[in-house]
Structures are given as structure tokens and as C-alpha cells.
Write a structure and sequence with these properties.
- This protein is of the alpha/beta class.
- It is built from 4 helices and 11 strands.
- Strand 4, helix 3 and strand 5 form a beta-alpha-beta unit.
- It is globular, with a radius of gyration of 17 Å.
- Bound molecules: inosinic acid.
- The site of inosinic acid has 17 residues, from helix 1, strand 7, helix 4 and strand 10.
Length: about 220
Amino acid sequence: STRRAAHGATVHPLQSAHRGVRAKGGEMGASKNPHDDISEVLIDEAKIAARVKALGAEITAAYPGNDELVLVSVLKGSLVFVGDLMRAIDRNVRIDVMEVSSYGGGNTESSGTVRILKDLSGSIDGLDVLIVEDIIDTGLTLNYLTSYLAGKNPRSVRIVTLLDKPARRIAELPVDWTGFEIPDKFVVGYGLDFGEHYRNLRYVGVLKRELYASLIGEA
Ligand code: IMP
């Protein structure tokens, strides 16, 4: 069920549907109770909380001194994660946000071309930057973002991601901190969405396949 894009990169059909032709809630048949749309809770609330706390401690230790650390949250998926992570980091931080989209209008294939929908508000010149991402899949988004930010003359650029699907990586990335490695399943919750739904779930769960089967050409 994986298509091959023109440039040879494998593209998860659901991800195409997800980032390209975004389904609206009513059209994709989401249930009134979002929990009914989850086939399996992959990472529960307590497990996430413990891991985020540990990541915060590691990040605090990795940036000694009082120089400003800029957390760059990649919208919208990392909203929930950055909210918890920033409170687990016991040092001076500043938050900035960027919003990017991987696929151009109408194009449902991953091209590696990233459009910046919302750029940084402040300068990162000479500062330590920590990119906060919800999930790394092919790696194309962060691959672009890392070099984009590196071009703005920061002192350092590092990456923390809550989730990683290493099986689907196309672009090699130096990921400094990973919350959880997960199998190649489409997940929602704790900030992650499908058609803008499910971001408010307190756990990370696998979306029932029947909810997106028609989008990827399954009966
Ligand atoms: P990448 O450029 O392929 O690494 O894409 C990463 C982006 O794809 C994430 O920031 C998410 O927005 C989206 N994504 C990839 N896998 C999932 C998933 O399982 N659930 C929700 N969003 C996903």
C-alpha cells in the first residue's frame, strides 16, 4: 500500500492524504466520541509524562550556562509536546513557532519541497536552537528546516522529537533526542491529528484503518 513518487522516494499513502488532500471531519466519518476511532493506545498518558520529564532533564543538562535557548515548535503537531516539554526544562528558554507544509497545493506526493507558512518571529543569531517536532517520518520536513535554520547563523541547531518512525526515513537526520520509536502505523493524539481531529487526546493511539481506507484506495 505504498506508492512510489516520481523521484523514487516511497510515500505512505495515508501521509499523502494527511498532508496533501486534508480530509475534513465530516467527510472522513469521524465518530462523535474520538476514542471510538482508536484501535490501540500505543503510548498512554503516564508513559508520555515520564518520558517528557526525562527528556527535559537531559536537555537541561545539555545546555549549561544561562545563554538563551530558543525552542522552535513546528506547528501544529508539536503544540502539546512543547507545552509539556518547556515546563520540564529547568533553565531560561524562549519559544518561537514555525509552520510548514510539505506538499504544495494539489500535490499529494512528498517532494522534499517544504513551504514555510509561518516563519520565526525573533532572531536566532548566535543562539542555541532546539527544534521541537511531534513525529519524524520520512525526515524530509526536518531535513529542510534544519538547513533553513542553520542559515540564520545560530550557535547550534539540535532536534528533539516525541515520536520517530525510523522504518520510513528517506533523509538522514541527526536527531538528538527521541521520545519513542514507533512502528510504521498512522498515529494520532497528544498533538498529532488526522484531518485536524484527535489532537486533544491525552495518549498516542493508532487510528482505525477503516477511517482512512477510502482515502488510500482501499474498499
Ligand atoms: P516527514 O517530513 O515525512 O518526516 O513528515 C513529518 C510530518 O508528517 C509530521 O510533522 C506530521 O505532521 C506528519 N505525520 C507523519 N506521520 C504521522 C502520523 O502517524 N500521524 C500524524 N501525522 C503524521
